[in-house]
């Protein structure tokens, strides 16, 4: 979720050049990408204020894409730092918590007095709580989900994308039912709960296609990209639904791994 590192890595000089206090020159690129993700997420709010819903959602999706690469670039450049970790958390909270909450409120929830605003608040707060939990556990050795290749709850960028599912369907079909405030409020509340839940969810590291189907997986990825270019809203809706359908599989897979670990521990003790 960004350029994360332990506290003592800040004082390590990697290239002999620093900007300010403790930030190496090579750390500029990943942190600049994080800042760009933050600006993209906040620009989504601007588009929402003027009612440009398509550009609004695309801006927040772009923020999610940038968030997905800043940490990888930081690790590639060996530029992880505590500064980057804190900036990344702040950017995630704004881009995937506050921005979607305000966008959905302006789009639909403002027509539901009190409860619509509470649903938006719940989403923003749960996103912040999830990120705070992640930061609190980052240096902990005992993380059962992470050690097994799973995540705890729905990640903030994915949670934001799932929260927009009613909007995807509304833009794609034009049906007013998808903009119904009560339906949107319930949906947003459920997505907020999933972000702070203790459910084991699949991560990219746990998805390993068998060698026999890797060419097919590449072909499917190409088709998905083409679908995003031609029918972006239906494609985003389908991808969101597929992710939700895979959540029970993630819970089942983690339970299976946990049983295997318990059996191995019991055999070692005996």
Give a structural overview.
Keywords: Lipid biosynthesis, Lipid metabolism, Membrane, Phospholipid biosynthesis, Phospholipid metabolism, Transferase, Transmembrane, Transmembrane helix. This is Phosphatidylcholine/phosphatidylserine synthase. The chain crosses the membrane at residues 27-51, 57-77, 89-109, 115-136, 148-170, 182-201, 236-255. One of its GO terms (biological process) is phospholipid biosynthetic process. It is found in: Membrane. The protein is mainly α and 270 residues long. The protein has a single domain, classed as CDP-alcohol phosphotransferase transmembrane (TM) domain (Four Helix Bundle (Hemerythrin (Met), subunit A)). Helix content is 69%, strand content 4%. It has 10 helices and 4 strands, in the order ββαααααβαααβαα. It has helices at residues 28-49, 53-76, 82-107, 115-137, 144-147, 156-163, 165-173, 181-196, 214-230, 232-269; strands at residues 18-19, 23-24, 150-152, 200-202. Strands 1-2 form a two-stranded antiparallel ribbon. The longest helix has 38 residues, at 232-269. The chain is globular and about 65 Å long. Mean pLDDT is 84; it is low at 1-20.
């Amino acid at each position: 979720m960004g350029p994360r590192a332990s506290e003592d890595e800040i004082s390590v000089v990697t290239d002999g050049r620093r900007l300010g206090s403790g930030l190496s020159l090579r750390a500029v690129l990943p942190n600049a990408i994080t800042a760009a993700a933050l600006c993209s997420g906040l620009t989504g709010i601007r588009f929402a204020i003027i009612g440009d819903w398509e550009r609004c959602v695309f801006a927040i999706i772009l923020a999610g894409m940038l968030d997905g690469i800043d940490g990888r670039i930081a690790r590639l450049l060996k530029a992880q730092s505590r500064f980057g970790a804190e900036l990344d958390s702040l950017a995630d909270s704004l881009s995937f918590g506050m921005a979607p909450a305000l966008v959905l409120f302006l789009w639909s929830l403002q027509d539901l007095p009190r409860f619509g605003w509470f649903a938006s608040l719940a989403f923003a707060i749960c996103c912040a709580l999830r990120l705070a939990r992640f930061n609190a556990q980052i240096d902990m050795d005992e993380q059962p989900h992470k050690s097994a290749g799973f995540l705890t709850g729905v990640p903030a960028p994915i949670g934001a994308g799932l929260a927009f599912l009613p909007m995807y369907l509304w833009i794609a079909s034009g049906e007013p039912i998808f903009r119904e405030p009560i339906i949107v409020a319930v949906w947003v509340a459920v997505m907020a709960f999933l972000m702070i839940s203790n459910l084991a969810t699949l991560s990219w590291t746990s998805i390993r296609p068998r060698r026999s189907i890797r060419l097919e997986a590449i072909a499917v990825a190409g088709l998905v990209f083409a679908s995003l270019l031609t029918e972006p809203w239906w494609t985003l809706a389908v991808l969101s639904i597929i992710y939700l359908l895979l959540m029970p599989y993630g819970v089942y897979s983690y339970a299976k791994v946990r049983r295997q670990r318990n059996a191995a521990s019991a055999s070692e003790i005996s």
